[in-house]
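Tokens in:
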């Protein structure tokens, strides 16, 4: 009986460690250029709304309309971190595009990663959080009308 209890305790500890590893939240920084080249992103986003990350130079801003956020997740099971993150990156970008069109904006500027409301500004990389089954990307940006 004592062996069964010991075995059950060992199994419980091992299972608890496995569950905590599966729930891990790993922060990765990935190239924006690669994400824009994956999943047919350039084509799917088109050219009607322009996107500017971090402190990238923009044409003159004619009107600032709003600031808004995205925060989406996708299934990461069986995918590489890059594949899962690039997919959710595109989902967030499509959400920014849709919101821009709703507001009458032709650009989203000052786009920063904003996971858990912690801003991370970069012109070349975006932040993604990956666990065993989910990947998430969050952005914050200013919706504006810029000169053509």
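Residues out:
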């Amino acid at each position: 009986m004592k062996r069964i209890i010991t075995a059950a305790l060992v199994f419980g500890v091992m299972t608890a460690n496995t569950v905590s590893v599966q729930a891990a939240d790993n922060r990765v920084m990935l190239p924006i250029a690669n994400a824009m080249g994956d999943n047919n992103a350039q084509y799917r986003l088109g050219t009607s709304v322009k996107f500017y990350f971090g402190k990238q130079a923009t044409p003159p801003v004619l009107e600032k309309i709003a600031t808004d956020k995205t925060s989406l997740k996708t299934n990461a099971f069986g995918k590489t971190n890059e594949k899962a993150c690039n997919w959710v990156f595109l989902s967030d970008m499509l959400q920014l595009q849709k919101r821009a069109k709703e507001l009458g904006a032709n650009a989203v500027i000052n786009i920063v990663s904003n996971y858990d409301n912690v801003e991370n500004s970069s012109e070349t990389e975006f932040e993604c959080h990956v666990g065993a089954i989910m990947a998430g990307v969050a952005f914050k940006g200013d919706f504006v009308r810029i000169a053509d």
